[in-house]
Design goal:
It comes from Musca domestica. The chain has helices at residues 2-15, 95-106, and strands spanning 21-29, 32-39, 44-50, 55-62, 68-76, 79-83. The chain is α+β, with helices and mostly antiparallel strands. It has one domain. A six-stranded antiparallel sheet has the order 1-2-3-4-5-6, with no helix packed on it. Strand 4 and strand 5 form a beta hairpin.
Length: 111
């Protein structure tokens, strides 16, 4: 079974189309870096970073269905912060939960 899996993976690599790089920039300096890559099939990635590890960037691509996906992000001492219409969001908190929380805050007993 493992040999079949390895053979299938190698066959997939051989059959896959080669990606054509349209733009490639990779500038690393003492005070930070800048990178920009664009591929033939409308895939792009760009990022700028400073010497403290802070980054701002974006990546975008087309889904197999032809939909355009774009994600922008920042990364700093507080973590990774992506923004996109494609990222899932939590549902809103129901009103009865908000009212219960407010009730608990106003009627809590001090010890």
């Amino acid at each position: 079974m493992f040999k079949f899996l390895v053979f299938s993976a190698i066959l997939a690599l051989v059959v896959a189309d080669d990606l054509v790089v349209k733009t490639y920039l990779n500038d690393v300096r003492a005070d930070g870096f800048e990178t920009n890559v664009e591929l033939e099939h409308h895939s792009r990635q760009s990022a700028i970073g400073d010497e403290h590890g802070n980054m701002k960037g974006a990546y975008e691509y087309l889904t197999p269905e032809g939909e355009h996906v774009k994600v922008t992000y920042t990364a700093d001492e507080n973590g990774y912060h992506p923004e996109s219409a494609w990222l899932p969001t939590p549902p809103p908190i129901p009103d009865y939960i908000l009212k219960a929380i407010e009730y608990i805050k106003t009627h809590s007993h001090s010890e």
